[in-house]
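<goal> How does this chain fold?
<sample>
Here is the protein in question

***
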Amino acid sequence: MFLRELTMSIDSLKGVGPVALHSLAKGGICSIGALLSHYPRTWEDRSRYVPLKDFHSGPVCTVVQVMAHDWFNFRERTRDLKVYVEDASAKGVLLCFKRPFMEKQLVVGRYYRLWGAFQYKFGELQCASFEVEALAERTEYNLIDPATIVNQAPKRHFGRILPVYPLSKTLTQSMLRRFIEQALNQYADHLEEELPGYLIQRDQLLPKSQAIRAIHFPGSLEELEQARHTLIYAELFYLEVLVGKRAKERRSVQRTTGCPGSAGALLPLQQRLLERLPFRLTQGQTEVIRIINQDLDGPSPMARLLQGDVGSGKTLVSFFAALRGVELGGQVALMAPTELLARQHGENAARLLEPLGVRPAFLTGNLKTAGRTQLLKRLASGEIDFVIGTHALFSKDVQYKNLRLVVVDEQHRFGVLQRQAIMAKGDHPDLLMMSATPIPRTLALTVFGDLDISTIRDLPPGRKPIETHLARESNEAKVYDFVRHELAAGRQAYFVYPLIEADERKGIKDAQSMATRLAQQIFPQYPVALVHSKLDEEEKRRTMEDFRSGAICILVATSVVEVGVDVPNANCMVIEHAERFGLSALHQLRGRVGRGDTQSYCFLVYSDAVLTDESKARLKVMLETPDGFVIAEQDLKLRGPGHITGTEQSGYLPLEIADPIRDAALLELARIDAFAMLEQDPDLSHHEHLQVAHVLSRTAPFSPIGI
């Protein structure tokens, strides 16, 4: 039987009542298989003797004698018990907050095994969180080596390595240990092997039944490490098999090729656009356009991720791709996460592509009924070549005549199901996803492992690096003075805040209040405007147009301007309460300036209050590097893969013990093995691989790119 086939209810275990059953279910543990897959977050080695004198090296695991009891008042509210203990090396104190019953359990003169983390405080070694286990009443224990006693006749809580699990409110470690130990005793021996035998032999992996036992209750630290290695590799191997199968399935779809033999050369519409541009494409743009052209001409649908730093020209590349899709007789849909960004793409498409004879259209949820009805008719009949919009592009009433290419901008802002919905509007259309948040290699091998990935690393010539400065909130006057100097020179500035309106509970600045203050008190001689997500779309459009034209000098905003704003004359970005923004948002906001040929500046104004370690780390990264790839790696470490890729929902990355960042080397090995196996046996039909296919059929739903 395989682990995921253990679907029997947990209430079959002794001691699992309704309350425990409910608590386990809240944590997603609803079966024996899920219980055994609830892996520890760490382990406590209670088989090793650590005397009180070595408290600084970690938790103490020793034998102590209770010497005396005392009572003390904690903050003058309650009387709490204080228990004085000592072992052969030192003396210590156990603080029993709200546990007066410990007076009877910890008897003066008796010996106990003790586990706990001590610290030197108020002139004594203190411990408030501990576990004890009484020894038999024998006076000669003080003559026996305490290290022997720690390991002598091991019981439930001592003499072994114990797991420490993630807990919900009403569960305890002892309860989970008891339940899992029962489940192991009843079911572990019946678990069948899942990995192909040749991989187990090659890497000397543990059998599945032994690995599951050892990950929970290892006999030694060496066995624990071997179990972790086995289970981590197995998870990553299954994941990469899924990735590989998805890629092979996509490539198995055959269609009429576009321009075979063209080697990615530009078609007439693309050549005409190139000639109309007032600048030259970068080398990176040119190469990516050639590769995408080859994909669009190929016999199988394209699935490519185009990544590049802010301002690298990805949108223009997507326009070249759209022209090829149109010239091959299809329709193209470009989906953006916000109406602001979609509208900018629509305006650029009209300016660049309409003169070439392309028929673009703009579709959002705010389009009025009459105009929407007419637009949908034209789209369904094929009279529209290129439609740009938001989530409205995959609404139920939207039909395409021949959707050939889907472009998803800022792909991490869309969920898996949303990407599936737009792809379902066509018959295996090509997919181009774009991201200004570069994807670290570890994610490229997992989340996007079945996509081809292209990267634009160069920026348009003439761009100057953006100077980034940190400033405390109490020193913001200096920032205002600097911005005032730039405004006087004819430049423009952004001021970004984390909140739209005031919230007294949070005590931080908001965009609405600061727009008034900036306009009336700080920069009264310069036009100031406000834009945020709650404003009417038409008002936002007018405000942005006034800012682009220079009628507005200072734009006060929330993170709504993170994408879709391109104003070359704006060279100052001031982000207040920068500690409250994620790394990706800070990098995107900084990228709103530096789009012209003048020097640009980004000021990260942070609170005078004590910052968290994570906030400090984000600000430090922003100060030290402008490289989006470095920032993406750090963001991945701080926030995890889901937030970066827009995949935190829908059971995405169903990993229980593996970590693609920590286990990057093992991930690459698993990928090589999985793809090699699929190359030899694409359908997993060989008898040696039947078990793998069986396991995969019961793995949590997973769709690497959501199509």
User: Anything to note?
Assistant: The radius of gyration is 31 Å. The first strand starts at residue 42 and ends at 45.
